[in-house]
Amino acid sequence: MLRPACFTLLMAGLVLAPIGFASAPARGPEYAEAEAWGSNLQPAFSFTYAGQSSRVIIPGWQAHSTLHDLDAQRQQAEVSYTDPKTGLEVRCVAVRYRDFPTVEWTVYFKNIGTVDTPLLENIQALDTHWEREGAGEFLLHHEFGTFYPNSPADFMPQESVLGPSQAKRFIPSKGRACADVMPYFNLARSASSGVIVVVGWPGAWAVEFARDDQAGIRVTAGQELTHLRLHPGEEIRTPLMVVQFWRGDWIAAQNTWRRWMTAYNLPRVGGQPPKPVFTASSSDQFDNMVKADEASQRFFIDRYREEKLAIDYWWMDAGWYVNNGRWQEPVVWQADPKRFPHGLRAVTNYAHAAGIKNIVWFEPERVMGSNRLYTEHPEWLIANHISKRLSKLLYLGNPAAREWLTDLISGILTKEGIDVYRQDFNVLEPVELWRSNDTEDRQGITENHHVTGYLEHFDELRRRHPELVIDSCAGGGSRIDLESMRRSLPFWRSDYCFDVVSNQCQTYGLALWLPYFGTATGPRQFSRYELRSNFACPLIGGSWDLRDRTLPYADLRSAIQEWRGYADNYSGDFYPLTPASLGADVWLAWQFDRPEAGRGVVQAFRREGSIYETARIKLRGLDPAARYRLTDLDHLTAPREVAGHELMGTGLELVITLRPGSAVLTYEKMPAR
User: Fold this and answer.
1) CA-CA distance, 183 to 125, in Å (whole number)?
2) DSSP reduced 3-state for 272
3) Can you give the residue ranges of every domain in the chain?
């Protein structure tokens, strides 16, 4: 592997002593590679300053470094460089993980001088070079993001071969972090080695994989546009970068990533990772919440309890506030006193008394003309001078605006007894808003400060409300980048949510990267195939009209009970068992496996156009020497025992006679005899 020249300079500032691991003999070369990166502050970054490359100018700057343990498994290193002439301070904060082959870092730029800096541009949070291993070619695993307008292809996995002199550049649409493309990548350097590269930035990022004409590839990543001067005292930051090295195969690498996500990233309440959750709402019956009132919410909660559809959360979506008859037009963020004379607290208290928590929708960044903020604080808002939309953006890069918002939301959370703060973001072109407010020598600054303020908003809410859960709705999955996922959960992964085939593929794609996400079931979806397709994730939702007492409640109860029986397995390792496809004539199957618990689940879907009633699939991750008890949830006969080596070698034969149809099998490792 070749190093950028800037790493030689970083080495001059800081050299970390090698760290021994108690279980070192069991660790593969991917740990040594990650340790080398961490020990040398290997995460590369680069930039241009006053027209000169950072590789040229940093040797003349003052260097300082620190090193300390964050805990038993994480070591943080910080190195800073200061230009004595202009007062620009560049600070890289890196964390190396001892229990995962993973390194992460963020770079900060601050003007500690007394006048504006020269132009700082083309900041790359990652700028490095890797060599191909073996005779094969680089293979890049990546994914679509969520599309606007809606598309069944949301989160579909993709593969790209990168031959000599080829390049692929990825930029999300209009500055929505996960619009059209996901900021998660797995670069295979051979069939048995590679590196995961992930960008944490809820804004306009850019990643490029550029092959040379030999056996190397240059990888760069950062905020898409930076061409700016910093005012005295001003600071910006790069996206969070993460690299995770792997050996073996790329699916096993994805499971290492999932385990790292669970161990160090999923927001916790009471120190525990999120559990499987069944939610429900009446949004489809009351124009979201525009026509809902206290009585209707109590009625639906009572009906769910009466039908023994045990919900964990009651969901109150857009429209509960004072509005102009449209959910998009909040006049003020206050429960409408005509419909909720006792506030939302009357509903949340009612649900809490039944052991049910709540989710409440907000969209504070998009400010419509109906909102009082539009006229009361125009200095906090930025307009789109390109598309000239009437809606404006509450600029969270303004400290006064951000503090006002956090105080407002925090107060409502307390007053109304809210358990889950659901923040939406339907600003379709944030990058236009940001850039249309940048001057020629400050391009990228508005975005950088807004993104930082958005993250600070979440951080402060969680500091004030330690038990709070944040749902990153964001127009249906457009902010599920890593920085957002460290603070929130995607309860609503996509606005394309009621198509069963798409829902199957969304689970397939997202499960490669995220161990927790959710979706909903349509108000007229009752078949076993539909319910299983929509229930194939850790958080599920119901939107049925429980005013209708003729609905197939026994089927709904059975499906929810069945899901609760295997939903814990969604936290385990994920193995695709067939290719991902939206085709109507195929089978789709996967496996979630918890080796520590010796349990797992296999789910398969036969699409409507498939002519095949049977399929043989080979399971993964099992103990070949053990025996497993298999239970077919469609044929509740006596469970059968099968050897692990048989399930992984010969495979498991599934039979689905219905078209479309589904199969769910659970398994449990038997004690050694």
Assistant:
1) 14
2) strand
3) 5-264, 276-358+521-571, 363-467, 573-669
Tokens coding 430? 């944030």
Q: Which value, to the nearest 10 degrees, does the dihedral of the CA atoms of residues 149, 512, 597, 629 take?
A: 80
The pTM (predicted TM-score) of the whole model is: 0.95
Do 5-264 and 573-669 have matching folds? no
pLDDT of residue 41: 56
Question: What pLDDT sits at residue 6?
Answer: 34
Q: How far apart are CA 172 and CA 178, in angstroms?
A: 6
Max intra-chain CA distance, the chain = 79
What is the C-alpha to C-alpha distance for residues 126 and 428, in angstroms, rounded to an integer? 27
**Closest alpha carbon to 376 in 396, 398, 394, 397:** 394
Domain 573-669 adopts which CATH fold? Answer: Immunoglobulin-like (2.60.40)
Q: What is the pLDDT of residue 91?
A: 96
Angle between helices 345-353 and 399-416 in degrees, nearest 10: 50
Beta strand 157-162 with 138-143 is antiparallel
With CA atoms as reference, report the closest residue to 577 among 653, 487, 501.
653
Q: Give the pLDDT confidence score for residue 180 in this predicted structure.
A: 97
User: What residue has token string 């429900």?
Assistant: 280
Low-confidence ranges of the chain (pLDDT < 50): 1-26, 42
pLDDT in the model for residue 422 = 98
**Contact at 8 Å (CB) between 211 and 164?**
yes
Query: What does the pLDDT read at residue 25?
Result: 37
Which tokens in the block code for residue 452? Answer: 């930082």
The pLDDT assigned to 615 comes to 97
Could you give the 3-state DSSP secondary structure of residue 614? strand
The tokens describing 114, both together, are 């007394």
Residue 59: its pLDDT value, please?
A: 87
Specify the pLDDT at position 40: 65
- Output phi, psi for 508, to 5 deg: -55, -50
The predicted pLDDT at position 7 comes to 30
Q: Which helix (H) or strand (E) holds 653?
A: strand 652-655
CATH domain 5-264 topology: Beta-galactosidase; Chain A, domain 5 (2.70.98)
